[in-house]
Specification:
By secondary structure, the chain is of the alpha+beta class. Helix content is 53%, strand content 20%.
Length: 148
């Protein structure tokens, strides 16, 4: 996997988090430690909006360094960032209080994804219900015509 492929995959994992309730400015730089996919990008929360860009962020609040697989697991919500730090899979520099807000952003994204899944499931259930009713109605009409 190249850096560009990894960046766009991670960007997709972060984007969509509803950060409108975060009123403080947060800026995180991620250093991906890997020979093939290594690189730097940042995640910024500014005025209730989320930005993910493939650049260094010099005025960052915190900097995270880890391997690509670790960052993917963190972004997916499969690995707690605090646990990754404790297990020495994630290196953190800077403002620890703000660094801990990363977990909040990831949880917001998971919540948004779960909401989307619930909406999609309800829509699918409604379609199935409509199809079943239509089939049942047509079968009843066909049966009614046979009796006549």
């Amino acid at each position: 996997m190249t850096y560009a492929e990894l960046f766009y995959e991670l960007k997709g994992k972060f984007m969509g988090a509803d950060v409108s309730d975060i009123h403080e400015h947060l800026a995180f730089q991620f250093n991906i430690a890997d020979e093939e996919a290594g690189g730097i990008f940042y995640v910024e929360v500014k005025e209730g909006n989320l930005y993910v860009e493939p650049y260094e962020y010099y005025d960052r609040d915190a900097m995270f360094t880890c391997a690509p697989d670790v960052l993917i697991k963190i972004a997916d919500g499969d690995l707690d960032p605090v646990a990754a730090f404790t297990e020495q899979k994630l290196k953190v520099e800077g403002n620890i209080d703000k660094a801990l807000r990363l977990k909040e952003i990831i949880e917001m994204k998971k919540s948004a994804m779960q909401s989307e899944k619930n909406v999609a499931k309800k829509a699918a259930d409604k379609v199935v219900e409509t199809v079943v009713k239509t089939v049942a109605k047509k079968a009843a009409e066909k049966e009614s015509k046979k009796k006549k």
